[in-house]
Design brief:
Distance between the termini: 44 Å
Radius of gyration: 16 Å
Strand order of the largest sheet: 1-2-3-4-5-7-6
Strand content: 35-45%
């Protein structure tokens, strides 16, 4: 069976997946440093055991959806709901990543759709927010195809060393 025909399982990461999540997150940070606010150095300060504790303690409003192929984690997307009473109507999408060797198969779209469906079930949640570097046309196009719209650009939203990139803020408002 060719690589493109293998079934991809979309499901929540659990504490049993902590090491594979940590490994995938490190791959993401090293492969696409401009796509994430965290650095590899910051992730190295967090153990897989810390990831397991976070996954174990997770509530329905905070989750990480994974894409798995033959048991291996190949994609991820996180979502967390704001905590304060005045902001609990909002949640943030973070950490969208698909391993480079498995891109181009619609996995990111499947992950996003799964996260959106789950987020819509959270009581009182009215919108999802995310940020994306303005020079990343593929993810921006994906988010727009799923109904996200731009609500502004943050100049120099990410900075590595002396280089900075603008980030676009996007929102998907749920119908009431």
């Amino acid at each position: 069976m060719s690589a493109d025909k293998r079934p991809v399982e979309i499901r929540l990461f659990t504490e049993r997946d902590a090491q594979s999540l940590w490994d995938l997150r490190m791959l993401a940070l090293e492969t696409d440093p401009w796509s994430f606010g965290e650095s590899p150095e910051e992730l190295r300060a967090i153990s897989a055991e810390d990831f397991a504790a976070r996954l174990r303690a997770g509530r329905a409003e905070n989750f990480i959806v994974g894409a798995f192929e033959e048991g291996a984690a190949i994609g991820m997307i996180g979502c967390y709901q704001e905590v304060s009473l005045k902001r609990r109507h909002k949640a943030w999408i973070w950490g969208v990543f698909v391993a480079p060797a498995t891109r181009g198969r619609g996995i990111a779209k499947s992950l996003m759709q799964a996260a959106i469906i789950r987020a819509k079930k959270i009581p009182g949640l009215e919108m999802l927010l995310l940020t994306v570097a303005v020079d990343q046309p593929a993810p921006r196009k994906l988010y727009q195809s799923l109904g996200f719209r731009s609500i502004g650009v943050e100049p120099r939203g990410l900075k590595i060393g002396n280089e900075a990139k603008d980030e676009e803020n996007m929102v998907l408002e749920f119908e009431k």
